[in-house]
Amino acid sequence: MSEPPSRATATVPASRVARRCSRFACVLGILFAIYAAYVGVACSSFGSLMGLFPPLYMKRGEYRPVVDAVLSGALAPDSLGVVRLPPDLSKATPRGEVMVDRRPGLTLILFPTFYGRGNDLQGYLYCSRPLTSLDWYSIDWGSGGVHEHIDVGPATMLSWWGGEGTWLKVGRRLD
Predict the structure, then answer these.
(1) Of 165, 166, 147, 167, the residue nearest 157 (C-alpha)
(2) How far apart are CA 171 and CA 15, in angstroms?
(3) In the prediction, which pLDDT does 104 show?
(4) How far apart are CA 101 and CA 138, in angstroms?
(5) pTM of the model
């Protein structure tokens, strides 16, 4: 009776190699599907529920005419600081409105991308100039740390993170 070949000298049948490759391709396919779903969610309004934003470059074309109209005075805020956008510009935000705050030497325009419960929201904030420490206030949240906030019209206690130039990502998640 001959001895079976040792593991060191055993050859792997081609069918086993093919099965391993097909498993690997299957895993790669699943990972790609998960990644594609993540990107799709990140760009959808459902993604806002998870704290994701549509990329600014996708929205800037819709935001620019609104910024120009507010800065020129063609669109004026009501007494609360809300500007109801005309029909041709209303696609820029979910509710067809932006919030405006004018201060000496500074105009702030908030473009909401998501409304949560209560007063919670998130969106992009256009600043007519870079913000300085005089433009915001700090709150000590105890164990949550000290955070800077800014108010724009009826949207209060907005925190910000990231951004591009005079555009900031802002949000309020308190309620």
Answers:
(1) 147
(2) 55
(3) 93
(4) 19
(5) 0.69
